[in-house]
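Q: what does this look like with alpha-L-arabinofuranose bound?
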Amino acid sequence: ATIQVNAGQAKEISKHLIGIFFEDINYGADGGLYAELVQNRDFEYTPTDRGNDQNWNSTHSWSVQGSDATLSIATENPIHPNNSHYAVFDVNAAEQTALVNAGFDGIALKKGEKYDFSLFGKVLEGKGGKVLVNLVDKDGTIIAQTAVNVTSKDWKQQKAVLTATSDAAAASLSIVPQAVSKYALDMISLFPQKTFKGRKNGLRADLAQTLADLHPRFVRFPGGCVAHGDGIDNIYDWKGSIGPLEARKPLRNLWGYHQTRGLGYHEYFLFCEDMGAEPVPVLAAGVPCQNSGTCAHHSKDELTCMGQQGGVPMEEMDQYIQDVLDLIEYANGDARKTVWGKKRAEAGHPKPFNLKFIGIGNEDMITPVFVERFKMIFDAVKAKHPEVTVIGTTGPFYEGTDYEVGWDLATELGVPMVDEHYYVEPGWMIHNQEYYDHYDRSKAKVYLGEYAAHLPGRPNNVETALAEALYLTAVERNGDVVEMTSYAPLLAKDGHTQWNPDLIYFNNTEVRPTVGYYTQQMYGQNAGTEYLSSTVKLNNGWDAVKKRVGVSVVKDANTGDYIVKLVNMLPVEVSSQVKLDGVTLVNPSATKTILTGDPKDRGAKPASSDFKVEGNDFSYSMPAYSFTVIRIHQV
Ligand code: AHR
C-alpha cells in the first residue's frame, strides 16, 4: 500500500495533551518513587492495612538480632497523635544486640554515596547513650557506619550521615545501642542524598528521571482509587499528607499496604514544579469508591446498587468543601496573608504552585449520593476559584452506557472538563479512532485520565504500544476537545504488582520502561501546539487495512518544528508520501525515531537517526508494526 498525507489547515490543540497518572498502586510511592529506604519507619503498619493479615503489624520489617533485648510497641506519649505507635527497645546487654530493618526487599546502596539517617528517640529507663547505626550487607559485612546519641528523656530527633563503602543490592539497617537502657524509637529513616533534584525527603532519582523523560505536561495524583478510597475513612485527606513527617497521618492503602504519606501533597506539587508539569490533584467527590456500595448502570435511567451506599454525611459536607477550598489556598494562596499559603511557606515554598486544575471524583458511579455532593463541591470551587478548572468524572466505562449519565450531569452543571477512563482491547483502539471526532465542541473538554490497551494475560508489548500510538494519532487530531491524557497505571514494583500492564516496572536497583512507555515518551517529547489536518490515501482502499495506519501532523509553535507521526499496525511495510501542503520549510533538517518489533515483543526500544528532508514533499517507508516520529527542524 502507499499512503499519501496531505497536511492542510491548522487548528490549535491542547498544550497539556500528554501527562502522567500517578497512583500509589503496585508500591508506586512507598518502596517506589518515594526514596525512603526503611520500611515501616513509623511503626504504624496494622493488620487492617492488608485484609487483617496479623503479620502486617507495627513490627513488620523489624527484627531483633543478638541476645538480651526485647522489642515491643507502645502508644503512650507518642511524638504526635497521628503517629501513635513507636518501638520500645529494651536492651540488657550493651553492644550485643541490634534492632534491624529489612527495607523494602532489602536496602540498595551504592559505593561512595551518602545516606541521611535520622530517628526520633528518648530514654524510658536508664541513661541511654551512643547508638551505632550500621548498614550491613547480606553476608554480615558492615558497609557503612555512623552513630547518634539517644540520651534525652523527651522525644528528640537525631541525624547522621553514612557513606557506603561498597555496592549492595539488599543490605539492612542495624541499630546497635552501646549502653544498657530502655529506648523509645520512632521515625527511623534512611534516605539517599542523591534524590531527584537533590531534594530532602525526595524522590528516587532514577525513577523520577524516567518520568521526567516523558516530558509530561501534567501530573495527576494521588489516584485512581487511592484518591477516593474504599470507605469514607479511607478517602485521601490531603491535609493529613502535609507538614512535618512525624505528624502526617498514615493511611491504609486500598491496594493492600500502608501509605506513610511521606510523599504527600507538598512533595507532589514540588515534583510537578521540578518537571515543569501542571499539578492535577484529584479529590473525592465526598464519596468513596462506588459510593461504598456496588452499583451498576443498566441504562441511562436504570441504576441498581447493592450494599450500603454512602458519602460524607451531609452535616460534615461544609467542612469537606472547606478542605477542598483549602487545598487551592495551600497551592496558590499568599504566603503571608492566607492560613494555608503560610503553611506552604513553612514547608519551604513561599511561591505559589500555580494550581490550574482540580479533579473532583474518580470513576464514581453517578448516583444521587454522588450527584448531591459533587454539585455542592463544584459550585463552591466555581464561586471561590473561577480561575481553577474543575474536572468532573463520567463514571466507569460500561458497554452500552458510554458515559451518558456522567456526561448528562456535566452538561447540566456546565462542568468545564470531564475525566474518562477506559481499559480496552487493542482492537477497540483500532476500530474507534473516530471516537472523539463527533464530540460536541460546545460541551465539556475531555481528560482521558486512565487508559491502556489490554490483551489477554495483560502484557505490555509492541501490539499494545502500537495500538496506543495509533489511537493517540486520533486523540491528537481531536486535541481541541481532548485537553489531557494519561496512561494508567504508571509504576509497578517487581513482586508487588496488583495490576498489569503498567508503564514502568522496577525493583530496588533497576528501572525498566515498557514498550508502551516509549509510545508515551515519543508523544510527550514531540508534542505540538497546532494540528495540521491530513488525509491518508491508501492505494488499497480496504477500510480494515486503513484503520491500521494512522498519521498525525503537528507543529510546535515554541520551536517552529513540524512533527509527523506515522503508525503502521500492518504486518507489511507501507510506503508513504508525505506532503506538507502550504508549508514552506527553510533549511530543514530532520530526525526520525522508530519504535518497531514483533507484536509480542516486550523489549522493543525506539532508535533515532537523521532523516533527509529537502522540501515539504518526501517519501517514507513505514516498517511493518512500527511507530515513527519524523521531527523537522528549520534553521
Ligand atoms: O489504574 C488502576 C485503577 O483503575 C485506578 O485506581 C482506578 O481509577 C481504575 O479503576
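The chain is about 20% helix and 35% strand. The radius of gyration is 27 Å.
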